[in-house]
Amino acid sequence: MLIDFVGLGSMGLGMATSLLKAGYDVRGYDPDVARVEMLCAQGGVAYTGAKELQADAIVCVVLNADQTRDILFGEHGVAAQLCKGGLIISCATVSPAFASEMEFEAVTHGLLYLDAPISGGAIKAAEGRLSIMASGTVEAFTAADPLLNAMSETIHRLGDRAGPGSAMKAVNQLLAGVHIAAMGEALAFSVSQGLDPARVVDVISASAGTSWMFENRAPHVVESDYSPRSKIDIWLKDLGIVTDIGASSGLPLPISSNALIQFRSASDAGLGQEDDAAIAKYFARAGGVIMPGDY
Fold it and tell me: In the Cβ-directed half-sphere of 273, how many Cα atoms lie within 13 Å?
């Protein structure tokens, strides 16, 4: 099988590499040529847009809904490169309504579509151990199963149409965003009380107040390492999707809405392109607290 892989960021490159390890031919595209070169060094080839080779499937791991629509069905959309009855696996965090729209568009082009948001981080992506929250038709799952198995440790089958996969990802992102914001607030609070943040990480990681996000992100703060694995600005999109869904259903979401406000303020303060653990710096600076490596 020939797989077109679009989006070779921190998650996508690892996923594409996992497909190569499983024996698939992978043709990759990313605006960052260096990322494509990294894939080629692993045995992949660069996507050129040439018409002579039609792919069996597309795995799309881009940033948002606009990029998903454009890369799949825009003027130069890669969906036109798929063979008849080919498969689209779409992994971006989008609204359930948008996922349904893309499924309808795929069907009108004679293609299969799987709504398949991902979770787990770059390390698990490289190890083929992601969690994939998927929904789609039986036919889409049948076509996608071998690829999903190569890229993931756990496949959550959430429905027979696009939408529920993205709804579940929104639930995950609500919790993840709130947990990161809480991590930043807790570390800033701990330093304000004279505690060593490294010791705080040790204690809380073995206590009831911990979370996966605390244990993953808090060490970034301790090490003053804000090179972006996941940026502050990502949460403006993801928590924005969450709050939009809540508003459309008439459900108030006060905690996640407040977390969104904090990430937006941190972005406005110039931290948007830093690792999302930098939310700790934003809280600390607001209170005149000096974090490790800060000023």
Answer: 1
